[in-house]
Amino acid sequence: MPGREFQFIHTYFRNALADSPEVRCGIGDDAAVIDVPPGMELVLSMDTLVDGIHFPAGTSPEDIGYKSLAVNLSDMAAMGAEPRWISLSLTVPDADEGWLQQFMDGFTGLARRHSLSLVGGDLTHGPLSITVQIHGLLPPGQALYRHGARPGDRIYVSGTLGDAGMALDMLQASTNADDINQDILQKLARPVPRVELGLALRGIASSAIDISDGLLSDLEHIVTASRVGAAVNIQKIPVSNALKDYRDTADFAIAAGDDYELCFTAAPEKDSRLAELEKSYPIACIGEITEDAGIRWLQADGSEYIPARVAYSHF
Ligand code: ADP
Ligand code: MG
């Protein structure tokens, strides 16, 4: 489809977003050229969404466009990086211009909110799949890694957990998506990446990760990378009233994925700075990093909770 491919690139990608001043060459040449500000660290991340796996059948093109960028922004947030430039690789089953336009509406709507430039990509024919590469910036030494947690650090999460999992559960159980509360569906379709919180956590958090596969699995990544353990008070995990009404909340809050909230740790000396942050962001302390390896999930009466669900795994 070379002729149409160029037409598509011109129509849907080339002028979709404004180039920031650092973009020496964006879409149109063999590769993009960016003038990375001197002394800054370049932070790269890539995520792919595959039809039927990362979004349920029936997801609108706008929501797919939005989410393919949101999950990448969430990775920047988890590193404390400022997102700047994106590349978009699209594999589409047919040349449906209506679909492309709607996809790009969802994609660019979110990109504009973060002043991102689209600097390149690819367009191929095949089963629907979307890959976004995101490029961000960090002052040297300020990245929020998974490996920085220390015994005695407090463990925090942002927002409420389990809402996206609840929405997916409702979709899978229902025959008519229109019957489901729109606010709940939005949690799955349009997660809001915690980019600003990630930036605010520079110099405060000792480690961070975004909760894409569920706290069970993502906190495990922090304790493994940091060679520590954790004790989490389940009743302190923030959950929405909608989830409380829906079902046994603990398993959803721990094991369900797709929330794109942040989980991070901070030393007790940072308490006053966290109290300050709490005025602007919904964050809750849910436990503590321990010297002993492994994660202990504690109930209100102090007894140990054994999670019933296991985290989602692709393989
Ligand atoms: P090449 O054959 O050298 O890979 P392409 O013909 O694939 O180049 O792409 C031409 C230009 O359009 C390149 O600058 C590429 O980055 C850009 N481009 C192609 N597809 C997309 C897309 N989906 N989004 C943004 N830019 C794209
Ligand atoms: Mg190409």
Can you walk me through this structure?
The protein has about 325 residues and is an alpha+beta fold. It has 10 helices and 12 strands. It is about 35% helix and about 25% strand. α3 (about 95-115) links the parallel β4 and β5 (about 115-125). Bound molecules: adenosine-5'-diphosphate (ADP) and magnesium ion.
Helix and strand string, N-terminal first?
Answer: HEEEHEHEEEHHHEHEHHEHEE
Count of helical segments? 10
| Cross-sheet strand order for the largest sheet | 8-10-7-11-9-12
Largest sheet: 6 strands, mixed
Beta content comes to 25-35%
Strand tally is 12
User: Which ranges are low-confidence, i.e. pLDDT below 50, for 5 or more consecutive residues?
Assistant: none
